[in-house]
Amino acid sequence: MVSAVPPGIRVLPCGPCGDRNVTYRIYILIFTFFCYTCYHMSRKPISVVKSVLHRNCSKVTDDTGSPHFGNDTTWCDWQPFDGSDYSQLFGTLDLVYLFAYAISMFFSGHIAERMNLRYFLSLGMIMTGLLTAAFGMGYFWNIHNLGFYIAIQVVGGMFQSTGWPAVVACMGNWYGKGKRGLIMGIWNSHTSVGNILGSLIAGGFVTANWGWSFVIPGIIISVLGIFVFLFLVPDPKDVGCTLPDHQGTGVTSDNPAVNKAQEGGSESEENKQLLASLHNVPGYGAGPNEYNSSANLIRPVATPDKAISFFAALRIPGVVEFSLCLFFAKLVSYTFLFWLPKYISSKSDIDAEKAADLSTFFDVGGIFGGIAAGLISDYTGARASTCVLQLMLAAPVMYIYNLYGSIDLAHSIGLSLLCGFMVNGPYALITTAVSADLGTHKVLQGNSRALATVTAIIDGTGSIGAAIGPLLAGIIETTGWNNVFYMLIGSDVLSMLFLVRLFVKEILEKVRK
């Protein structure tokens, strides 16, 4: 359809060189990588700027370059964060953002399936940029009202939730199941790249003028949002490219029945029943298809795919299990994200700045953990088993890290890398390849308009855990760090238990084969 082609693509002097399918897939991989990099870049400034909203004013000079004398010990702070309750206020900003993000995620996926992904992602990025910049404008407008900053965090969290369902849906539309785990494991490193860029940009302005720490990232993501509107191609059908193999059969068909027929197999009785039940759920329905035997392709007839409903998405096999698994996996991961620097500082004789630097090794380990999880799951074809294996190893690794991670620098770095590898591997795999697999499950009969809804359900459930984890850690930390780690280990075990049924099913299938 000509109307589905983005205006920027239509005005290009020539089409992509070489194999159009390969060229477009590489293009989408890079484009969506930068899109979500910008989302994370725009989230990072608040953690950097906290250090100047409330700081030790006795170590700060005034505008003349001289120490500020007098009885005012909060002269360099930013109201309303200059009081003794500043820690609770910062916690409130984080909490309202995380919960707004988590709750909005469920609605974002529902909306994304019902409108063009290019419009949806573009609008989300532009609004995210404007709201990020608005927080920084509080500095230039001299705003000291807590309600202003809370409102920005709430609405900002709502628009931040547009990013993940949209980019995963785009990647799922373009990449089939065969190498999806490895490709999306590497692609998922955009979170760490965005965090690093956000820290560098915000850090460059934070001391002299913290307003620019928000305004600059806001401008960048808004500008990229305009490019998304002009150039993003969310679906291969928009530009006449071949649809990917979503079932891992080597057949580029959207219809599982045809795939099975060409493999010499038949649809399982379980999936027949699931398929029949999905057709009885309001909001589900893939239009009739016709089969072109010469091209081995399924082409939709006049009736377009209908967006899947929330409850229909919950009935896709594995969605509930992986969602609950991610709830506890993300709880553990985000607790490390928010509390690891303080843990390192409290357990070792090092300052807060060095502790923050050491905590980045956990993220580095997480990058390699996500790539390894994707590679192993591609090779074995067992996503749930890969997650269970890493979660099983994560529990003893966290226990060992708590015991020996503070002995010296080498132990701290080595165990941080190993801990991040085990903890973040399943989290990365579930939010990327698993979400894409379930959003293109064979019971959907080729209906491609379920990716964003499924992704939103899984990541939204995980994001609720991400909000609860740091909150629990803050309460439990007063009783000792050992209790915090017991809570994390228990959460990790619960995360693993939710995948036991799928794990057993995968093992039995391997044994039968």
List keywords for this structure.
513 residues, globular, 2 domains, Growth Hormone, Chain: A, 20 helices, mainly alpha, two-stranded antiparallel ribbon
Word description of this protein:
Helix 7 (163-174) crosses helix 17. It is globular and about 70 Å long. A two-stranded antiparallel sheet has the order 1-2. It folds into two domains: 18-60 and 77-239, Growth Hormone, Chain: A (Up-down Bundle), CATH 1.20.1250.20; 312-512, Growth Hormone, Chain: A, CATH 1.20.1250.20. It has 513 residues and is mainly alpha-helical. The chain has helices at residues 7-10, 20-43, 45-53, 86-112, 117-140, 146-160, 163-174, 180-187, 190-205, 211-231, 256-263, 269-279, 310-314, 319-347, 352-380, 383-404, 409-439, 451-476, 481-497, 500-512, and strands at 289-292, 297-300. The two termini are 42 Å apart. 49% of the residues are buried. Residues 251-268 and 275-304 have low confidence and may be disordered. It is built from 20 helices and two strands.
